[in-house]
Amino acid sequence: MKFGVVIFPSKKLQDLVNSYRKRYDPHYALIPPHLTLKNAFEASEEDAVQFADKLRKIAGHHHVFSLKTSKISSFQPVNNVIYIKVDPTEALTELHTEINHELNVQKLEYSFVPHITIGQKLSNDEHSDVYGSLRMTKVNHEETVDRFHLLYQLENGSWTVYETFRLGRES
Amino acid sequence: MKFGVVIFPSKKLQDLVNSYRKRYDPHYALIPPHLTLKNAFEASEEDAVQFADKLRKIAGHHHVFSLKTSKISSFQPVNNVIYIKVDPTEALTELHTEINHELNVQKLEYSFVPHITIGQKLSNDEHSDVYGSLRMTKVNHEETVDRFHLLYQLENGSWTVYETFRLGRES
After folding, report:
1. Which segment of this protein is annotated as the motif HXTX 1 (chains A, B) (predicted)?
2. How far is A127 from chain B (nearest CA, A)?
3. What is the tally of structural domains in chain B?
4. pLDDT for B2-56, tens place per residue?
């Protein structure tokens, strides 16, 4: 089965992101809006316990941090994903690095570009149209991140939360 | 905004339940299969912190317990909900009672019938057909419950996990 590690932003930001995803993201119904800390990876159901133990320790020695968004961007030409750019702070980058180092079941294929997807699997024409109309949109938003989540994927493609990890808490 | 408290059963049981929900439950895309411990209730976003504090304490002095299913049943004539019946053990009932007592923002309208919904909002004819074909289905399944979750609802009706609470852990 597949696991992944994500941050769910505040309800306010999730609602904004969903207003775009509804039209542009076929994963809209499978998972709430999120910032991916570790991409989906394959492991057995029993592995969840040790993943959670590791993530709990990581969360314990990281601190609550601020998440800032500024604009809408795209991964083109790599792929046709449109996203809200999240400023790559040291706190976020270190959390990402440690999670991927400790749960080293896969190699990192890309450098970490923190983002919240608002559209994907668009044709080139759709991508041009949508990105053209959104690229100048300002998304000046700031909030506090105090937790992240380990998820697993069901057979229908949707994701269920296995556990929440609160930053800076003894455990 | 709305909050709720649920148990997500194992992936195996969620996948089975989704094979029915896909056809019979219009909430299929809004939330993974679950057993409701506290029905949706209205509160402000800031209240989440104190709800989580209370739920963490409750989780700390309850123990991991066994969840058993046996058959498919229906709430008719109260409503046209078809569900997998979960045996009402003392552990489950006490957890339900304490959560509803501590988060007493609403009165309990019904007695607690632990269940995992597989179909709802069916017309009377649909209900008759579907329940007629499923009522003799045996669902002999047993698993261990070691956690539950506090969720909140987004504007599009879907639910995001705020926090996980592990049973029998100091916090």
Report:
1. 34-37
2. 24
3. 1
4. 999 999 999 999 999 999 999 999 999 999 999 999 999 999 999 999 999 999 9
| Inter-CA distances, B44 with A11, A47, B50, B116, Å | 11, 36, 11, 27
Q: Is B24 on the interface with A (CB under 8 A)?
A: no
Within 37-66 of B, beta carbons closer than 8 Å to A belong to 45
Q: For residue B16, give the CATH number of its domain.
A: 3.90.1140.10
Judge: B15–A156 Cβ closer than 8 Å, yes or no.
yes
pTM of the model as a whole: 0.94
Output the pLDDT for position A105.
Answer: 66
User: What is the number of H-type helices and E-type strands within chain B?
Assistant: 4, 8
In the block, which residue shows the tokens 């697993």?
A152
Residue A171 lies in a domain: no
- Find, in chain B, the residue whose alpha carbon is nearest to that of A163: B164
Residue B171 resides in a domain: no
Residues B97-142 have pLDDT tens digits of: 999 999 976 666 678 999 999 999 999 999 999 999 999 999 999 9
Asked, for residue A33, whether it belongs to a domain, the answer is: yes
In a domain, A134, yes or no: yes
CA distance B57 to B150: 13
CA distance B29 to chain A (A): 5
* ipTM exceeds 0.85, yes or no: yes
B34 is catalytic: yes
Range of the domain at A16: 2-166
